[in-house]
Amino acid sequence: MKSFAEQININGNTFQYRECGDPLALPIVALHSLGTSSDSWNEVATRLGEKFRFIALDQRGHGESSRTNTYSFEEMCEDLLLFVNALKLERFILIGHSMGGTVSYLFAQQYTSRLEKLVIVDTPPPFPDKPIEIPPEPEQPLPFDWKVVQAIMGQLNQPKPEWWENLPKISTPSLVIGGSLSNISQDKLREVSELIPNCKMVTIDGAGHHVHRDNLSEFISIVTAYLNS
């Protein structure tokens, strides 16, 4: 299935997104992980685009979207709101992986009425844990802005309590998908699924943190069954 890239200007910043599927079908908006881009959803888009309008966004500082002066989960959440408003998406399915998953939690906490369903891939909201050492900037060119890493890891090291406290506010039917080989605590994902009122959790065997890359067929099977339920 063919996908095409589009660019849109929001508050003076350029955002690129990739889209495929029926433009009249129920939209899915997908958010990628730190250091990747909308391309990370290509195989998922091909499969889910058979029934849905699949839209994958390059978040700020990634892919072909603008490099900005500041980065945070909250700014990315606001970007998402302005993006779906610009595309006139009143209600949609939201899928977020890792960094994109945290952005998705924040969006669902504030705008749960905009969402048909929520799918989170292998991430809980950040929580107090042993400090993460922020690595030095690599010498070779990167396909994303290194300042994003510094900012997001800084937030991981200083998580806000309300990111967890507001999970029960999410009334959207939700699915949390983990990978059995992931470095992410599956117990924490289970805790999330118990705090969100209408949420279930599935762990995919043999998959690491990049669940949809490591076991695409199982990922598609689970997500399709959930979206059709």
State the main characteristics.
229 residues, alpha/beta, 8-stranded mixed beta sheet
What do you see in this structure?
β7, α6 and β8 (199-204) form a beta-alpha-beta unit. Helix content is 34%, strand content 22%. With 229 residues, it is α/β, with parallel strands linked by helices. It contains eight helices and eight strands. α2 packs across α3 (99-111). An eight-stranded mixed sheet has the order 1-2-4-3-5-6-7-8, with helices on both faces.
Short structural description:
Helix content is 34%, strand content 22%. By secondary structure, it is of the alpha/beta class.
Mean pLDDT: 96
Distance between the termini: 24 Å
Helix proportion range: 25-40%
Find the structural class using helix and strand composition. alpha/beta
What's the Cα radius of gyration? 16 Å
Number of strands: 8
Query: Going across the major beta sheet, what is the strand order?
Result: 1-2-4-3-5-6-7-8
Order of helices and strands: EEEHEHEHEHHEHEHH
Beta-strand percentage range? 15-25%
Q: Stretches where pLDDT falls below 50 for ≥5 residues? A: none
Outline type? globular
Figure out the total of helices. Answer: 8
Summarize the main sheet.
8 strands, mixed
